[in-house]
Write a structure and sequence with these properties.
2 copies of one chain form a homodimer.
Chain A: H1 11-37, H2 40-43, H3 48-67, H4 75-91, H5 96-114, H6 120-162, H7 165-190, H8 203-215, H9 220-236, H10 246-275, H11 293-307, E1 311-318, H12 321-328, H13 330-346, E2 353-356, E3 361-367, H14 371-387, E4 402-408, H15 415-431, E5 437-439
Parallel strand pairs in A: 4-5
Antiparallel strand pairs in A: 1-3, 1-4, 2-3
Helix pairs in contact in A: 1-3, 1-5, 4-6, 5-6, 7-8, 7-10, 9-10, 12-13
Chain lengths: ~450, ~450
């Protein structure tokens, strides 16, 4: 959508507007940055000196050009410039909502300036429209850039995880021990730690700040590790003073050893956590991990809406699963889930998607499939499962049944509606006696 | 940043505004959707019937509540509602700039409605401020949601790539051949293809639309494969008519065989392309792939700005590399690059980042390092390399030199400034005779 920028007012008021903007540009830009710099989120991006040197003049130019395009600023150049700004903001991570907050300040200040003008209403309408148009264009390229950046960040994170984690763990453990050993030698030689340096300034500390923050994104262990490191540097190291008697060192040494042990323990725990990180598939059933459901379902809904093709989902639940678990134990329950997943997967096409949705629930996305076809597939699955002898070591072959809810996509762009409809149908299947298929609405 | 919503005008004009919005809500909402549905991008999300049934009434409620919050719509509830809308838009992929375009339409129509009011200017200012505030809140949660979604999409794409590609390739090749064989049996039995079904409707065709589109995102081969598949279904299959003489089948059969071969060839090529897909590291030098530079550098710039720590980069280029390649051949040139990368990596800390930046260029990100320290590290690298005997099979040990440009981050949030400064310094190092280090600006 590329609606043209709003038409200019009559030449005389357009001239007045240009003059007003030029006269007040300095103050308007000042107000804009004052607002942004008052915000914690924005301040990180906008060092004060950089704002003064580079960004203020360019915002000023942008503002003046917005209302006085003249011959040197053709419409195409105007559009290209706004798109470029959005692209740069995405690169330097200035969120769009902060730019909108700054623009709102500009608009309110401009309204103050315009209030006394004979054509105040028209000029206010014009300035609002013009600024909104610029914001819209920026947002367009910002969204694209921010999305690309998020994808790259994720690719890098997954790549980091994929590196030789064992090597990295040992290498960082060695770094920590090396610092500790050096520090102890200093203490033993002189009683003090002069010249040994803080742990946070060591290669280990640097690695924690610049690699671990990314690798263990949001880990509570990492916060504890940072706290322990800070305590070592700020509290424990200063306790060692040159020339102290050996007997005075015992307490501080014990505290330091405990703190270093804690850092080593937390480091190990974090690496341990990585090894168990969840993958793309459920390890037990080999069904897709539920975290990808939204990516896939929203893409399929987009496809169905764009191509006017049908799309259905099945939600399948193993009947009386709790009883199986309680009677035979969890390992048998797991074996049942594995065999149910196998039967489900055997009854769909290579283009369909099978997810482990919950404990004993599976969700199947059936592409280019209407409700009638979906219920047929669901009945086939139900029969196949009821007929299948489950095998588990130490048990006679036994049978399980499943209840299935089917629903067809009805055009709503929100995937939650579709899943909810299948869930409602599944609920009815359970209510109506289990081992049956129910569907949402009427079959065409 | 959570600026409060603009203050309401005096009670009488606030009442008039509420009445005006209510009276015109129907028309305003109509204009909003007319604009969005005229847009190709937006139409995909908003099926007409869905808009009528669900979205129009909720936009109408939103609009009325925006100006008549009343007792039942406290400020916190207002904020929560806008944030929720942004979240939903991110989920159903309605881009923020389209919402802004719709809002611009609302504002312009509202201005028409308000123009005759005695307090037109104030009301216009108020409505603009109120809508902008709502948009800002939506944008805030939209950006977060869209970024999470982009990360998940990428994780899923990389997960798909990681699956058993060889198995998938053979399985889809078999699917294509199975369709082809079935179709040929029909033709040989009757001369026609009734009941054989289109290739695009076969499991293979479905797989192409729902899996390959994602796996081979944007591949030109895929576009050609889709075109070939469409030609088979729309042009070639209709040439077979039941009861045709065997002699009439020769031409159409030849054309069909060629087209199926083309589809098989393109499928193979696409899978081939996946195998050679670039990973996180340059396979030759094991340096990081340049595509992650932006993710890493922008994160480090954010860290430096937030923590007031220094940050520097080195750009390193092998001197006279073309001569090495020309004299000894590319394999020797590759060996030189490998050994240069090794020497560079040996001279940085575990927390630094070494990228293959171009053919014979490497970029090093030095965290928590100022320009003085960076030039020291650069000089150490330069000496280490000049002293290092390069070894390559069939050649006497020989030496290469490097030129290095160093630059320190000066606060600008755009990473391109920093890389550009290092590049300028590298250029000077080359101009000043090579085998030397130059730096950007004055060393503190």
């Amino acid at each position: 959508m590329q609606p043209s920028s709003p038409a200019l007012a009559d030449p005389a008021s357009a001239d007045r507007l240009r003059q007003l903007v030029q006269d007040h540009a300095e103050a308007l830009v000042g107000a804009f940055y004052q607002t942004l710099l008052a915000d914690d989120e924005a301040r990180v991006f906008l060092h004060h000196s950089v704002v003064q040197e580079r960004l203020s003049p360019s915002l000023r130019r942008w503002l003046v050009d917005l209302f006085a395009p003249g011959a040197d600023m053709a419409e195409a150049a105007f559009v290209a410039r706004q798109l470029k700004i959005g692209e740069v903001h995405a690169r330097i991570k200035i969120p769009m909502h902060l730019v909108m907050a700054g623009a709102a300040v500009l608009k309110q200040r401009l309204a103050d300036v315009l209030a006394a003008d004979p054509a105040a209403f028209d000029l206010l309408r014009l300035t609002g429209g013009r600024i909104d148009y610029a914001l819209r264009l920026m947002s367009q390229s910002y969204e694209k850039g921010a999305s690309n950046r998020a994808r790259l960040d994720e690719a890098y994170r997954l790549f980091s995880l994929d590196q030789d984690i064992h090597f990295e763990r040992e290498s960082q453990r060695a770094g920590l021990m090396e610092w500790s050993q050096k520090t102890l030698f200093r203490i033993l030689a002189s009683g003090g730690v002069e010249g040994a340096g803080a742990l946070s300034a060591s290669p280990f500390g640097l690695w924690i700040r610049h690699r671990a923050e990314f690798l263990f994104d949001g880990s509570s262990h990492l916060a504890r590790l940072n706290a322990a490191m800070e305590r070592i540097d700020a509290e424990l190291l200063p306790r060692f003073t040159p020339g102290a008697a050996a007997s005075d060192l015992a307490g501080p040494l014990e505290a330091l050893e405990a703190a270093v042990d804690e850092v080593a323990f937390l480091l190990g725990e974090m690496f341990q956590g990585l090894a168990g990180m969840e993958g793309g598939r459920d390890p037990l059933t080999r069904a897709l991990n539920r975290r990808f459901l939204s990516s896939i379902l929203s893409r399929e809904i987009g496809f169905a809406n764009a191509n006017h093709t049908p799309l259905s989902v099945l939600l399948l639940d193993v009947d009386h699963f709790k009883r199986i678990n309680d009677t035979h134990g969890h390992p048998i329950g797991d074996e049942v889930l594995r065999q149910v997943a196998e039967a489900v997967t055997e009854n769909v096409r290579p283009s369909d998607f099978v997810f482990r949705y919950g404990g004993e629930e599976f969700l199947v996305v059936l592409v280019e499939t209407n409700l009638r076809q979906a219920t047929t597939i669901a009945e086939r699955m139900r029969h196949a499962l009821a007929a299948k002898a489950m095998t588990a070591s130490g048990l006679e072959p036994f049978h399980v049944t499943v209840s299935i809810g089917a629903a067809e996509h009805r055009g709503h762009p929100d995937e939650n509606y579709l899943v909810k409809a299948a869930d409602d149908a599944l609920y009815r299947a359970k209510q109506n006696g289990r081992n049956r298929v129910e569907y949402d609405g009427a079959v065409a």
